[in-house]
Amino acid sequence: MSNKFKILSDISKKSQASDFYFTFFKGSLLIKRENDVINIPVLDELNNLNVSYESEFFLGEMLGQSCFGVEASSQIELKDGYELISLREVGPLIDEELFLVAGRANQILNWDRTHKFCGKCGSKTKNKEEEIAKVCPNCNHVMYPVICPAIIVAVTKGDKILLAHNSGFINNMYSLIAGFVEAGEDLKSTVKREVFEEVGIKVKNIEFFNSSPWSFPNSLMIGFFAEYESGEIKVDGKEIMDANWFSVDNFPNIPKKYTLARKIIDEFVNRGEKDGRK
């Protein structure tokens, strides 16, 4: 998050009519289009649309204006300019900061939806008043929003970068190698393991680049660069359908700019330009 949005520890904030409300219904975000500009509705607009919801979560402040996340409990009657759109669709259309806040809302609401009952004793949980957490009134077990760390890595070989086509990708898209961190595993070990498991090669000189939340539904993506060390590319034909080395002048279809994958790929391109390679 940048300086525009701040996560605050005090979640007892009372809502006002002008506060932003990141409102979801069946996984889609409520937005309003005005002259080709996409805006997040405020509470006053939600009231005019008669949107009903059970719980609201204070997300933080955007330039001093409070932001809340809610999940509509019934179908929203959309009026002129309002629409429901998936996060993946809205990502390229809005400011990156708004996308990250929307992702935070989506992640918390997904956690709220999947933690209605205690995992220890099965009793119905309650929201804690002083923090975003749930507590079991029967056994006092406390549950926080789930965050699943995952690595994503650009493996380079001279002026080429390794890109792979996952069976779940659409439009013949290619991206970087990625995978979840196992219990008890450090991040560099995850990088080495995932690359070897998915494409059969070994890497060296692993370098941290950046991190970014990825709320589909609850990941924290941790980005790296790594250099090719040895081995030949081998894919399983099930999860990874194809993988190859690509230079800048023959890139396939790659991820959109709001993703960490694209930021890493763009950094690879920028480094090449600084080094004098194309």
Automatic annotation (TrEMBL):
Cofactor requirements of the protein: Mg(2+)
Gene Ontology molecular-function annotations: hydrolase activity; metal ion binding
Residue ranges constituting the Nudix hydrolase domain according to the UniProt record: 145-268
EC number(s) recorded for this UniProt protein: 3.6.1.22
Enzyme's top EC category: hydrolase
UniProt cross-references to PANTHER family, sorted A to Z: NAD(P)H PYROPHOSPHATASE NUDT13, MITOCHONDRIAL, NUCLEOSIDE DIPHOSPHATE-LINKED MOIETY X MOTIF 13
Name of encoding gene: nudC
Taxonomic superkingdom: Bacteria
Pfam families, per the entry: NUDIX, NUDIX-like, Zn_ribbon_NUD
Keywords assigned by UniProt, alphabetized: Hydrolase, Magnesium, Metal-binding, NAD
Stored CDD domains: NUDIX_NADH_pyrophosphatase_Nudt13
Name listed for the protein in its UniProt record: NAD(+) diphosphatase
